[in-house]
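Late entry, written up from scratch paper. The run itself happened at the end of the previous shift, but nothing got recorded in the book at the time, so transcribing now.
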Amino acid sequence: MRFVLSVVAVALLCSSPAVADPPPASEQLFILPPQGWVVGYHETKGNVDVTEVLPPGQTLKNWTEMLTVQIVGGMSRKSAQDVLKDQLEVVKNACEDIGAGQVSLAMENGFETAMRAVACPKSKQWGDGELSLYKVISGRDRAYVVWRSWRGPSFDKEHLPVPAETTTEWLSFMRQVLLCDAHDPQHACPNPAAKGAPAGK
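Output as recorded:
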């Protein structure tokens, strides 16, 4: 099951640190995909761009883990929390039940962010379960929605199907997802020469 909102061209170079192509405002979304993961799907429709990245050996029809990146244009007046609420509604409509953790709000590199874990114990269409951690970043006129997902057999929302190490890894990954603007010191981009920093194009 895939939940899709809307997005602007994203290029993920999964063999190395990656940066999404900068929109007109010179914003850049820096992402470091898990090592070895590859792009399985990418599409741009209007002001929406979606990229899905998969572990080696997994496909869009047969996956247990996925990284999804959406960039949604025309969102200059919408808060990160409101975009996250919209995404939750998408999940609700696709699931027989839903579980959601607390919303975590923050300012990162001068941009408003919101993060939340969402559980879909059983999808209406496929009957499987999905657990995701979402992060939304509000740019100047775009919303950046990034999420890590696990999919497998249906489950009880009170007993999550992934080990604690997975949650820890997802949180660590989300901390590295950064929106910046090379032309604005208030939203400084990482130094590509710094150890572990995402490299620009």
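DSSP finds two helices and eleven strands in the chain.
(Scratch paper discarded after transcription.)
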